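Thread amino acids onto this structure.
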């Protein structure tokens, strides 16, 4: 018993095999990360931690083992029975779910290769305003959450994505930021400064 859906399940193996190979070899994994913007060197201990923490590895190996055996059976001219197709469909479903949910494991000593943004708030002293800095190293615009500052109002101070002279604003004179999120352009930095809410025109 075989059909087009079964063939589609088996074709997923061609997509998964290169990924499985990358995850099995330290140098290959480093190169995979490098291609997606993370230049990191992993020692044997870090690679072992990754292998242990990456939840995607077990579904890939289970699917690969099932699909390779069934593909060989189909190639020999033997039809698959209903239980084999059901097992293939099940392992494919688990694999697809794992791929969709995959994120970088929490590895001590390694930066997140998918982390391309950072925000922090710097408290001002005396008459100095508070600053909220949002850094976007991603190649697309990202929306950052603007922190709530009771009794104060955020104003735009710096936006490196904007064209001059809109990229820099004099102290406490930039446009008010009233939304709960603030857009930050690709590969750019936005700095907000807080002012007393009563001073907003």
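Threaded sequence (201 positions):
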């Amino acid at each position: 018993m075989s059909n087009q859906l079964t063939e589609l399940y088996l074709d997923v193996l061609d997509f998964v095999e290169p990924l499985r190979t990358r995850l099995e070899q330290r140098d290959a994994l480093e190169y995979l990360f490098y291609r997606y913007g993370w230049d990191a060197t992993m020692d044997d201990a870090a690679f072992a931690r990754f292998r242990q923490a990456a939840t995607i590895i077990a579904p890939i190996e289970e699917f690969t083992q099932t699909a390779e055996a069934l593909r060989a059976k189909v190639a020999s001219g033997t039809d698959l029975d209903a239980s084999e197709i059901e097992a293939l469909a099940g392992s494919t479903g688990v694999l697809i779910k794992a791929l969709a949910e995959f994120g970088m494991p929490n590895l001590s000593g390694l930066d997140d290769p998918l982390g391309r943004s950072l925000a922090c708030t710097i408290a001002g002293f005396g008459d100095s305003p508070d600053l909220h800095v949002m850094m976007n190293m991603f190649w697309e615009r990202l929306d950052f959450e603007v922190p709530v500052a009771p009794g104060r109002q955020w104003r735009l101070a710096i936006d490196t994505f904007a064209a001059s002279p809109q990229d820099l604003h004099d102290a406490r004179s930039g446009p008010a930021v009233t939304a709960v999120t603030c857009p930050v352009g690709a590969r750019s930095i936005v700095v907000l400064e807080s002012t007393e809410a009563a001073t907003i025109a």
